[in-house]
Every structure is written in C-alpha cells, then in structure tokens.
Amino acid sequence: MIRFEILGNLAAVTLSRPEKRNALTPDMLESMTGVFERMPADIRAVIVSGDGPAFCAGFDLKLCAADPSGETMRRLLTALSRCVRAMRTAEAPVVLAIHGAAVAGGCALLGGADIVVAERQTRLGYPVAKIGVSPAVSAPFLSIADGPARARLLDPDLISADDALAIGLVHELADGPGATRERANDIARELAAKPGIGVAATKALCNHLARHRTDMALEALTTSLSCTGTDEERQRLAALWS
Question: What angle do CA 144, 124, 71 make, to 5 degrees?
Fold first, then answer.
C-alpha cells in the first residue's frame, strides 16, 4: 500500500490504497518510515503523493473501532510520529503533492515535508478531537507551531487550501490533481539539479534550528497516547460505524 519508485536521482513515494482514500494503517506508516530511513544516498529529492480521489483521509478508523483496547490507535500514533521524523531528517528534500483531502494523520504528514503543493480544492485539518483523540502528536512538526497553524490543532473543522496557504501549512496551489503532481515534480527536479551537498547541509541546518520543536516529538506523542483507550474514544469510534 506504499509504492516506492526510483526515477534517476529522484524518488517517488505513493500512498496506494485508493479504495480507502489512502486511510493509514500501522503497516503503511511503518513501511513508509522504512523507505525514508533506507533512502539511497544518491537520491536528491523525494516526491510524496497519493493515488485515487484523496491524498490521505487519515487513520483507518474502522481498524481502531474494532480494537476497543486502543492498541491499534497507539500503534498508529507511534508509527506516525516516527514516519514524520524520518521524513524530516532525510537528507534529500521532501516535496508533497496533496489533493482532495489531507485530514488528521494525512495532514500530519505535511509536517515532514520541506515543500507542500496542494490542489486548490483540497480540504485540510485535524478533526480528531471530535472522536476523543488528541492531535498533539503533530504539533512539533508544524512549521509555525506558535501561530495560526497551532490553532488548527484545537479547531476540529477543516479548512480550504487557500486558508492553508495563508497560514503556511502549504506553500503553493495548483489547479487539479494532475497539475499539482506536475508542479511537485518540477520542484523536485529543480532541487535535484542543485548541488547535493549544499541542499543537504541547508536542510540539516533548518532541522537544527527547529530542534526545540522536534526534540519535543516524544512528549507530543505521549500526550496523544494518553487519550487512547478511553471510554470517550471507544464510544465515539463505535458511533461512527453504528
């Protein structure tokens, strides 16, 4: 459900579970983490996108509802945190092409990207508070965690791609999924054409400057884990499928 392709000095990582709007499973996130942790050294840029009608609808909540112990949710949250950290620390710059929806865990993946191109019709956000789940796991990776993006974690409503651009969650907009992917490909090719050592060093410096955020990744994950397996979560997840 994660497709990995090498295209010369570029790599393409694709969420490929279109029949479920690329809803994330623990295995998908763990596979994606492995791809970034073992990325070949000669890859100069990585493009991440999703098959089907949406980039990612978040966690597979049907799996979570079937596990009232909360263990599936805990595994998803832990794998998500590790995946975003692997994207963030990869030497090659990461370009996301998102379309349709980037919701909850799908929106959290934006925190691992260096550049995000969004289709204008995309809806984004963290509606998980409605089901008793804390999106705190995403907070350290937001590019402007002390500004309007922080407020998005507290507000369960989705926002438009235009609003996401205004607050810095995405960096460019394009018209239609095809144009979004092509623009992301163009950016990746431009980055790959630059001196590799300079790009890697610049990304490493940016990560170093943001270390006060990423160092809190485990604390943020612990906050989200503390809400799993509660009566509220069980009741609200069950209500989704009743």
Answer: 90
